[in-house]
Amino acid sequence: MTGNQDKDPDNQIADIVETIHEIRDQKETSIEAMIDHLGVASFTPILLFVSLVIVTPLSGVPGLSSISGMLIAMVSAQLLMGRERLWLPAFILRRHLPRRKLDTALSRLEGPLKWVQDVTTRRLAVLATPPFSYLLYTICLLCGAAMPFLELVPMTSSLLAAVVALLSISLISKDGVFALLGLTGLATTVAMVATIGQLLG
């Protein structure tokens, strides 16, 4: 299972759309099979794909938000370390997703991804390139690491996944506008969790 870090960014979102078609055509529903398909692109599209899945109804599958959060954290960490080969533990790779729910989730991703492909362009690219890009990957890591602990708090996993998705889109397309949207979403999520914590306290 390999991933070449950040090939031509103009093609990667299109690669993900094509990969969704491939995954829907196959019978295998393991996370390993899906990651193998995404291996033709790079680490960052894996972040985008996994985070988008958690925004869909698949987030209701017990334990999936936690598994996906760990996956996001590990991919982000390996990106920050500059690894060229992605390593993931077997207990994550063996996880299978319900076929019907997976098909529904993937069908809902195609339209938004095609829209993103049409609207993204190089704007405020400084926000999506080093050294600022390292901050975005660090935020993705922290969001993923937080998901297992916040899974029981309504909507937080989906909101954190949306932040990761927006930051991933920015990093793939070098569109700083999506980075700003992701950071705004992060601030909103943190404020919401803090408010819930105060209410429960």
Structural write-up:
The protein has 201 residues and is mainly alpha-helical. It has one domain (9-200). It contains nine helices and no strands. The protein has helices spanning 9-25, 31-38, 43-55, 64-81, 90-93, 99-119, 132-150, 156-173, 176-200. It is globular, with a radius of gyration of 16 Å. The termini are far apart.
Instruction: Profile the largest sheet.
Output: none
Shape: globular
List the helices and strands in order: HHHHHHHHH
> What is the terminal separation in angstroms?
45 Å
Q: Over all CA atoms, what is the radius of gyration?
A: 16 Å
| Total count of helical runs of at least 4 residues | 9
- On the 0 to 100 scale, the average pLDDT is 85
Number of strands: 0
Total domains: 1
Supply the helix-strand structural class: mainly alpha
Helix content: over 70%
Spans of at least 5 consecutive residues with low confidence: 1-9
Quaternary state reads single chain
* Beta content: under 5%
Q: What key phrases describe this protein's structure?
A:
disordered N terminus, ExoD, mainly alpha, membrane, 71% helix, 9 helices, single chain, 201 residues, globular, transmembrane helix, transmembrane
